[in-house]
Specification:
- The structure is a single chain.
- It is elongated and about 60 Å long.
- Helix content is 29%, strand content 29%.
- It is α/β, with parallel strands linked by helices.
- It has 8 helices and 11 strands.
- A 6-stranded mixed beta sheet has the order 2-3-1-4-11-5.
Length: 214
């Protein structure tokens, strides 16, 4: 049986709609009061796992799921051993450097050498500033990263931005974009080569569905 890892949060509703369009119905995950983390779709041909977005590529990499849907930001940060098959074109956001709106820093290169940058995306932030040849201290935060500059703990943050509303409400502005992110369909490479659960046909059907939406 084919197993699909689905992400909790912002991507879930669109992911379930897309899978339903190709014959896999995991709508039960959206039902109020539902606490199941594993369900079999109505046709009995596939199983869905509901996991944290950061865990989707882990389940796929280790073979507990053959397919998964997750944001490019997670893949960029974790660099899992999975194959990216399709850019699904939803869940748009961007990874940005942000500072206080009244800051003297107008670009990342204005930041002081050995200054502090807070982020939950530690690897992406470190790689970005290494590429700029600007030595900074990356401070790992996994809650309200915006508090870094507000409290003076850091000069800047690296974080995901969608509408920018949270930044504005906390007196922060973007000064650079590292990359843009959308939802991606990922696959366990060996499962794909072996066409487990008829993955080829499912993926092609999904590609065709996406083309009709463009």
């Amino acid at each position: 049986m084919l197993t699909v890892a689905l992400p909790k949060g912002e991507l879930l509703k669109n992911s379930i709609q897309l899978l339903k369009s190709v014959g896999l119905d995991f709508s039960a995950f959206l039902e109020a009061g539902n606490r199941q983390l594993q369900i079999v779709d109505g046709s009995g041909q596939a199983k869905g796992l509901l996991v944290r977005a950061q865990d989707v590529p882990v389940y796929v990499e280790y073979g507990q799921a053959q397919l998964g849907i997750v944001g490019y930001d997670v893949l960029k940060e974790k660099q899992p051993q999975v194959a990216q098959l399709i850019d699904l074109k939803y869940g748009y956001c961007r990874m940005s450097v942000a500072v206080k709106a009244n800051s003297i820093y107008k670009s990342p290169l204005d930041l002081p050498a050995h200054g502090r940058v807070a982020s939950k995306y530690v690897n992406c932030a470190r790689e970005y500033f290494q590429d700029l040849d600007l030595p900074v201290e990356i401070v790992p935060l996994y809650g309200s990263v915006e508090l870094g500059p507000i409290t003076g703990m850091s000069e800047a943050i690296v974080d995901l931005v969608s509408t920018g509303k949270t930044l504005r409400e906390n007196g922060l502005i973007e000064i650079a974009v590292l990359y843009e992110s959308t939802a991606r369909l990922i696959v366990h490479p060996l499962s794909y080569r072996l066409n487990m659960g008829n993955i080829y046909q499912l993926v092609e059907t999904m590609r065709n569905q996406l083309l009709t939406r463009i």
